[in-house]
Structure formats: structure tokens, C-alpha cells
Amino acid sequence: MFKSRWFAMAGASVLCFAAVWAANAQAPAQEPSFAVYCRGPLRTFRTEGGKVIRTPFKWAKEAATKENPGAGECAWADGPPQGIETTPGESGAILGNLGPFDSIPVGTIGKVCVSKASTNNEVVVRQVVRQLGHETAPFHRPPFTAEGCPG
Questions:
Q1: DSSP three-state, residue 88
Q2: What string of pLDDT tens digits covers the 151 residues of the chain?
Q3: What is the C-alpha to C-alpha distance for residues 62 and 42, in angstroms, rounded to an integer?
Q4: Neighbours of 61 (CB within 10 A)
Q5: What contacts 76, CB < 8 A, 6 or more positions away?
Q6: In three state form, how does the secondary structure of 93-147 look?
Q7: Cβ neighbourhood burial of 38 (10 Å; 0-12, 13-18, 19+)
Q8: Cα separation of 12 and 19, whole Å?
Q9: Is 75:36 a contact under the CB 8 Å cutoff?
């Protein structure tokens, strides 16, 4: 009876380890994320029964660390990351759920960690970053930084 318990525990441990290993082996490699600052008004649209979530905007002319984005614009914190092409003044879109911050009101600025989408001028949401003191809203005030987005 004593030996069967040890075999059962060892077998359960092996099964748990195998399940974790298989889950990690199948997980796709995640792209690095980069900080984007967006100034309202921005409105999120859901199509195909809520399956497709897009927040359209225009790309700002300067990085957020140089100049605040204008109304309805988004700007990279320090400039576009290598491998992501964006053109100032062109339309872009954030793809994915911004949670309770789908609509950013006029004059407020939200920081979103994004990664490259398959289409130019589009980015995918990874995380909405909240500034200390504003935990209930994604509002940020200058100075802006690229910090806070997982690599």
C-alpha cells in the first residue's frame, strides 16, 4: 500500500509536468510590445458580433516625448520601433479590446502597450497602462516615457 501511493504521486507529478510542458511548447512566441500614447476623442467599434474590435485614429507627426499627440491621434513614445512602418497623418487602428477604456474622452491621453499587426498602420493591444493616481482611468500627463510595456 505504501509503494502504490508513491507510484501514484510520481505518476501524477509526471502528468502535471507533461501538461505544463506541452502548453508552453504550443504557445506562440509573442511579439515585443511598445508604448503608444493616444489622445481622445477615440471611439471603439465592434463588428461581426463583437469578434472584431477596432479603434481608429490618425498617426501623430512627432513622437509623444517631443510633442503631445493632437485630438484623435496616437504617437509612439520615442518614435516608431524598427520593423513597424507608420506614416504621420495616415489613418491607423488599434486592434483588440481596450477593456473599460474603449472610448477615450476629448483631451485625455491614454497609454497602450501594442505590438505589430499583420497590416501596416495597425497595432494590436497588449496592455492598457494606468498612471499612478489614475488607477480607474488610462489618463497620462507629460512627461511621457516608453517604459512600462513588457519587452
A1: coil
A2: 555 554 444 444 433 333 333 333 333 456 789 999 999 899 999 998 888 899 999 999 999 989 889 999 999 998 888 888 888 999 999 999 988 778 888 888 888 999 999 887 899 999 888 765 554 555 667 778 888 887 7
A3: 19
A4: 13
A5: 34, 35, 36, 63, 64, 86
A6: EEECCCHHHCCECECCEEEEEEEECCCCCEEEEEEEECCCCCCCCCECCCCCCCC
A7: buried
A8: 11
A9: yes
- Which long-range contacts link 49-57 to residues 24+ away (Cβ below 8 Å)? 52/95, 53/95, 53/96, 53/97, 53/98, 54/93, 54/94, 54/95, 55/93, 55/94, 55/98, 55/102, 56/91, 56/92, 56/93, 57/91, 57/92, 57/93, 57/94
Q: Confirm if 108 and 131 have CB atoms less than 8 A apart.
A: no
Grid coordinates of 30: 509573442
**DSSP helix/strand/coil, 1:** coil
8 residue type, one letter: A
The Cα–Cα gap between 128 and 145 comes to 14
The C-alpha cell that represents 121 in the structure block: 498602420
